[in-house]
């Protein structure tokens, strides 16, 4: 059941991404040749108003074919005959729709569970927070150069800045204060810690749900970006990345662990995963790498600046090389996922 749920979640998120491209293409009068879910052999297809809608055998991925890799034709609806800003809006719409979907899921989640304000509920004796004078009820506003809106951001900041001296800004009785803390190693927990406890959830109304839903999306976007930075700096290895196999396994494990607590717990955990995946796909697709939406946007912005399109054959060659490299990376990640899932 967990595997089926994973495929449904992943397929829906990818389809919504492609739906963003589709909607903006239609709005700009661009011909959409095919709008499809899945890859491989076609199971079902139907043509309607010049677009073929299809479902393919393997429910991983999807696409919105607009002929963007073709040369200009006489058709006014050809992607490459539209203005550069129309084309930018179409390409950017996919990742933007991922962020919108993540926000919708986050609002639903906050309405169901509440939100974790960054308020200290406990200060451990003998730790830096107590020595710096922080108290129960203080609200953390900033850690280092990062604004804090939910308590999980405090935990994550500590995880990626292990052992680092940090300036903390906090609110007490309506007044801002600052303190500089150097976390100490907690031998029992196995990591550096400031000695701050919190994370109690507050019930939300629709307005606070929208506010803290946005904060949750920001949190997952920051996690994705910081993880990429750690990958580039060597703090984490490429073998720690997960692909579709790893995602399916994660969802399956989450389902198995939460089902004993009832349907509500399962739904909450699956929504958490959907927010993470949707925000992650949005960020990854905006990376300025060939074959990704971000790579296409680079060429389009270059065209907007120089007012002349990059020769299609040169752009096509760059994207072809990018696709080949991405395929190699995907095979490597899939191999690692299979090794972790089945042989560890």
Spatial strand sequence of the major β-sheet: 6-5-7-8
- Average pLDDT: 87
State the helicity in percent bands.
40-55%
- Global shape: globular
- Total domain modules: 2
Number of strands: 12
The unreliable regions are none
Main β-sheet description: 4 strands, antiparallel
Question: Gap between N and C termini, in Å?
Answer: 22 Å
CA gyration radius, whole angstroms = 23 Å
Q: What is the strand content?
A: 15-25%
The helix-strand sequence is: HEEHEEHEEHEEEEEEHHHHH
Alpha plus pi helix count: 9
What is the structural class?
Answer: alpha+beta
Q: How is this structure best described in words?
A:
By secondary structure, the chain is α+β, with helices and mostly antiparallel strands. The chain has two domains: 87-114 and 206-344, no CATH class; 116-202, Roll (Pdz3 Domain). 53% of the residues lie in helices and 20% in strands. The protein contains nine helices and twelve strands. It has helices spanning 2-27, 84-113, 128-131, 151-160, 206-233, 244-258, 263-286, 293-306, 312-343, and strands spanning 34-48, 51-65, 115-116, 120-123, 139-143, 146-147, 166-172, 175-181, 184-186, 191-193, 196-198, 201-202. Strands 6-5-7-8 form a four-stranded antiparallel β-sheet, covered by helices on one side. Strands 1-2 form a two-stranded antiparallel ribbon. A two-stranded antiparallel sheet has the order 3-12. A hairpin with a 4-residue loop joins strand 9 and strand 10. Helix 1 (2-27) packs antiparallel against helix 2, helix 2 (84-113) crosses helix 8 and helix 6 runs antiparallel to helix 7. The protein is globular and about 75 Å long. The two termini are 22 Å apart.
